[in-house]
Amino acid sequence: MKSKILLIYTGGTIGMKQDPDTMTLVPFNFTQILDEVPELKKIVHKIDIFSFDPPIDSSEIEVQIWVDIANLIKESYSIYDGFVVLHGTDTMSYSASALSFMFENLGKPVIFTGSQLPIGMLRTDGKENLISSIEIAAAKDSLGRAIVPEVCVYFESQLYRGNRTTKYNAENFRAFRSANYPCLAEAGIHIKYNTPFINYPSLYQDELRVNSVMDTNVAIFKIHPGISVAVTDSFLKIKNLRAVILETYGSGNAPTKSWFIDMLRDAIERGIIILNVSQCLAGSVDMEAYSTGILLKKIGVVSGYDSTTEAAVAKLFFLLGQHNDVHIIKELLQKNLRGEISIN
Ligand code: ASP
């Protein structure tokens, strides 16, 4: 049986087309998508469109918009087989990460996509991204269950787990990368699903839950040679700060200068969580590899393993929103909750 898809257009470059008379970019009318892309009728039975009004550039994304997208999906969850979220590329990885944590018992695909060139331009990458995303969101196995029941990012023929992605290229059509986890599918002549790497719910029938309370008292602290006492001190004393993502070198290394370690230790003693995430795109934090990492572990810095910074932000917002107990949060940070880190 053909699928029903809800297409949610939040904004971003994909939603533009060139007016043939004036050659200016005007909003693309997604409500007429089946007329514009009649090929879609072959793969889906029905597409409904929900457009944000006004559409937003993804630089303006806030937690409330994640909550709105999640609630929209929750409200229409029983009606549709899959969901495609059209979103600006700039913060797509943050949004896909956030939704992956907000949803519990997800059993249907939620595919984020967008484009580098507007959908109405001749050389657009938007059409292929849109069509393949819809096809993936509509894909079911012989028992009628979703083939990819995860929050994903689809871009330039690759389907990624959303909370493993990073936007790394502002120019090329291949704008995203999932350096620490394999693609979930690749679209060539056929769409080939990488089934062993896809997460499936234990029970497809479980009710979808949305955890919409998030706490944003989190800061990203990227270390660099020459980092000063004044900068570190003021950073760790930000009002209401509950957690810091410490972006470290290589496999989780940071300076061992006593003032630096003392400031981190003091922050941890004040109840601030410090999560160690590498500045490198690929590989993992290993706080046992070098003395610099060992020292961080000793004072209570938590390993972020091979998490992206985007997933670390989303996971902390989510955990801080759900829990007050620092020990519980630290414990959950080191667990693989939605496939965001490579540990069990
Ligand atoms: N600035 C745009 C956005 O992220 C870029 C894009 O859509 O790719 O909304």
Query: Helices and strands, in N-to-C order?
Result: EEEHEHEHEEHEEEEEEEEHEHEHEHH
Residue share in helices?
Answer: 25-40%
Portion of residues in beta strands equals 15-25%
Helical segment count? 9
Distance between the termini: 36 Å
What are its keywords?
Rossmann fold, 8-stranded mixed β-sheet, binds aspartic acid, 9 helices, alpha/beta, globular, 4-stranded parallel β-sheet, 18 strands
Short description:
By secondary structure, the chain is an alpha/beta fold. 27% of the residues lie in helices and 21% in strands.
Topology:
Blueprint: E1 3-9, E2 16-18, E3 25-27, H1 33-36, E4 44-51, H2 63-75, E5 82-86, H3 92-102, E6 103-104, E7 110-113, H4 126-138, E8 151-155, E9 158-161, E10 166-167, E11 176-177, E12 185-187, E13 191-193, E14 209-210, E15 218-222, H5 229-236, E16 243-248, H6 258-269, E17 273-278, H7 291-299, E18 302-303, H8 309-322, H9 326-333
Parallel strand pairs: 1-4, 1-5, 5-7, 7-8, 15-16, 16-17, 17-18
Antiparallel strand pairs: 2-3, 6-14, 8-9, 9-12, 10-11, 12-13
